Amino acid sequence: MNLNHKQDDHNTFFQINGVWWTELAHLPYFDLVCHTIIDPMHNLLLGITKTQWYMQWILTPALRVSTQTRPHELDLMHKFLTTVPIIWDMFLDEAESNLAMSMKTRTKRQQHYQKEYKVWKQHQEVPEEALLQDYLLNYKELYGLGTMKPKFHWAVHLQQQILDYGPVYNFWAFLSEHLNKVLKGSNLNNWIGGQIEILMMREFVRGSQIDSLARGASATTISPIIKALLECLINDHQEALGTVQDAATERESNGKFKVFYLNHGVPH
After folding, report:
1. Which residue has the higher pLDDT, 86 or 233?
2. Is the dihedral of CA 35, 40, 45, 49 positive or negative?
3. Cβ burial, residue 123 (10 Å; 0-12/13-18/19+)
4. Which run of H or of E encompasses 112?
5. Cβ(79)–Cβ(72) under 8 Å?
6. What pTM, to 2 d.p., does this model score?
7. SS3 readout for 51-90
8. Residue 41: what pLDDT?
9. How far apart are CA 39 and CA 184, in angstroms?
10. Which branch of life, at top level (predicted)?
11. If 0-12 CB within 10 Å is exposed, 13-18 middle and 19+ buried, where does residue 40 land?
12. What is the pLDDT of residues 228-246, one digit of tens each?
């Protein structure tokens, strides 16, 4: 078979199936669409949401920057977002108290929720996939077909993917992206020689070993000074998972040092 004829077969395959040819298509049990995992984080947040927010609102007059005489939408939103960490810090104690109370009745409330959800599901007039399709069709009508990206189509496969592979946190990319952030944050002292992946992994392993040694020493030491220093070292190596955990970690560390200074005095 000559190359031109083979390329014609590949083009025909694309027209029939909507996907480009790959040698994996020879496998009778492999479905190129069903067995290709769509990451909800990149598809929905960095795909559809970013396109809606940045391309259609930021780059157009929909959200305007404030002028010297009049505030507008974009700056007002930025001002609101700057208050979010303060809100978390103000209501952190109340949130932790509410969480502790909620956990005591979690099983009973979970059973009630499942019962109510079953009833709601039976009487639901608009299925979930119809809501997504309604949004996509409205987006097409408002902004035109040319502004839509392939991710808009991929999103319609997410419902079936959840049924096939379970909840989204089983296959979304938040965990791997979190690890990438840890690796990229490794201190390489501006070293650019060698393979960057190996250098980052060595730094990650070295940090893990230091963390393990610090935890072991913290559990066996009897000196309160050494214990406080080791706990700070452990907290410094831990990567926080969000604004709430950042606030909680900072508050816990500050509280430990206040107690330490009250009991032992400020070192000179």
Report:
1. 233
2. positive
3. exposed
4. helix 106-122
5. no
6. 0.50
7. HHHHHHHHCCCCCCCCCCCCCCHHHHHHHHHCCHHHHHHH
8. 87
9. 21
10. Eukaryota
11. buried
12. 888 777 765 454 444 444 4
Extract the tokens encoding 80. 């609101």
Report whether 105 contacts 112 (CB < 8 A): no
pLDDT of residue 120 exceeding 70: yes
Pick from 61, 86, 56, 85: nearest CA to 74? 61
Reply yes or no on whether the pLDDT at 212 is more than 70: yes
Q: What is the pLDDT of residue 139?
A: 92
And the tokens for 184?
């990229």
Tokens 């608009």, residue located: 126
Query: What amino acid occupies position 171?
Result: F
Residue from 195, 167, 166 nearest 183 by CA: 195
Q: Which residue bears the tokens 């109370």?
A: 101
Q: For residues 46 and 151, is the Cβ–Cβ distance under 8 A? A: no
Residue 268 has pLDDT above 60, yes or no: no
Confidence category of residue 2, pLDDT binned at 50, 70, 90:
very low
Q: Report how far residue 171's alpha carbon sits from residue 165's, in angstroms, rounded to the nearest whole number.
A: 8
The predicted structure's pLDDT at residue 250:
53
CA dihedral over 36, 37, 38, 39, signed as positive or negative: negative
Q: Which two tokens stand for residue 151?
A: 């991710």
Note whether 148 and 140 are within 8 A (CB): yes
